Amino acid sequence: MIALCASLVLALYLVIPSLLFRALSRFFIPLRIVAGTPTQEVARAFLTAAIPFLLAGAAIRQLPPGGAGTPLQAQAVGQDYKLVASCLYSEQTFRDSKQAFWDSFGRVARRQSRFLGWYYVLVMGEGLVVGVLAGHYGRFKRNRVYSWMADKILLPSISEWHPLLTPFVFADKTTVVRADVLTTGDNLYRGKVSEYFLDTGGRLSGLILTDMLRFDRRTYLQDKDARRGPDPRGYWKEIPGAKLYLFADKILNLNLNYESAEPSAQVVEEFLRKYLATAIPPFHVEFQRSGQSPQAEAKEQNGDIEEGR
Amino acid sequence: MTTDLSKLAGLIEEGSLPVWLREEIVHNREDILKALTHARSITLRGPRGERVTIAPTTNGTNIPA
Fold first, then answer.
1. What is the DSSP code string of A263-274?
2. Considering the entire predicted model, what is its pTM?
3. What is the pLDDT of residues A103-149, one digit of tens each?
4. Does residue B30 belong to the interface with chain A, where contact is any CB pair within 8 Å?
C-alpha cells in the first residue's frame, strides 16, 4: 500500500508537473535539443517543480477557502494528515479508525486537490515563461543577466548541434545556415542546412541540405595541374534533386557559414580587420541591399568588384 | 555541451558573413588593401546585387554604418 501511495505521490507531484512543464515550453524550444543524463533529468524535474510547489503551498495557506485559519484549525489539519498516513501505513490502525479515516481522507483529498490545482497552473506558467525566454535567446542574449541565466539555468545542457545548425543564436531568424560538408568519399557538398537529426544520446545522426551544390574536385585538380589558374568558385555544380540527406557517420567535417539577409557592418568590419591582418587605415563598411537588378541576377553565383574614390 | 552557450554563440556570430561576401573578401584581399592604402573606397557586389562598400574614414576613426 505504501509503495502504491509513493508511486501516486511521485506521479502527481513530480511526473505530471514535469510533463506539463515540457508540454508548454516545447512550443518555443524543441525538447530533443536538450541532451541531459538521467540524473540531470531528475534534478531538472525537481528544480522545475520546486518554485511552483512552494508558491502553491503559500497560496493555499493564504487564500480562502481553507486558509491557515486558527491554530486550532491548523492543528486539526495536521491531525488529518497524521491519521491518513498512519492508516496507510498500518492496516490495524485503518480498521480501528473506521469512519474517522474516511472523514480525514476526504478533507486531505480536498485540500490536496486545491493545492494540485494551484501547483499545476503555476508549473504551466513557469513552462511558458521558460519557453519564451529560452526560445528568444537570439533576441535577449546581449543582456548579461539573461545570458548568465541561459548558461546556467535555462539551457545548460542544450545540444551544441542546435545553435550550430540553426539560426538559434541570431535575433534575425531568417539567417541561413550554409554548410560545406566533406564526406568520407572525398566529396564536398554545399547547401543550406534544412534539418538535422540527433540520436538518443544527443549525437548528430544526419542532416538534410537544400539548394545543394557539389564541388567538382576532379576537374578542378586537373585544371590546377594544367596551370589554367582555376577559380574554385566556378567548380560548384548543382545537384539534381530537392534535398540531400547526409549520414553523420559519413561526414568528415563541416564548414559552417551563417548568412543573414543583411550582415551587420560590425561583423564585416571585424572580419576584415582579422582577415587583412595588417596595418590598414581606418575604414568603415556600408551594406546596401539590392533591388534584384538583371545584371545582378546574371551573376548568380559569383560576386563582382568595383573601385571608386 | 561542455562550453557555455554564450561562448558558443559568440563564436558562431563572429565572422557570420554570407559565403559570397567571404569569398569576395578572400578573392579580392589585395585589391581591398590597395584601395584602403590609397584612401579609395571599394565596393563588393553580391550575386543578388547586394553592395558592400568598404571606405576609408577621414577622421581617423571607424564610422558605424
1. --HHHHHHHHHH
2. 0.67
3. 888 888 888 898 999 999 999 999 999 888 888 888 888 889 999 88
4. no
Identify residue A297 by its one-letter amino acid code: E
Amino acid type, A262 = E
Interchain contact B29–A (C-beta under 8 A):
yes
Copy the grid coordinates of residue A255.
564548414
Task: Say which DSSP state B63 is in.
Answer: P
Given the cut 0.95, state whether the ipTM is greater than it. no
Q: Which domains does chain A have, with CATH numbers?
A: 2-154 (no CATH), 161-262 (2.30.30.100)
Q: What are the beta bridge partners of residue A214?
A: A189, A237
Q: Which residues pair with A304 in a beta bridge?
A: B45
What DSSP element (H or E) covers A32?
A: none
Record: contact B16-A301, CB cut-off 8 A: no
How far apart are alpha carbons A230 and A232 in whole angstroms?
6
Question: What are the structural domain ranges in chain B?
Answer: 17-54
Predicted local distance difference test score (pLDDT) of residue B1: 61
What value does the mean pLDDT take over residues A157-185? Answer: 88
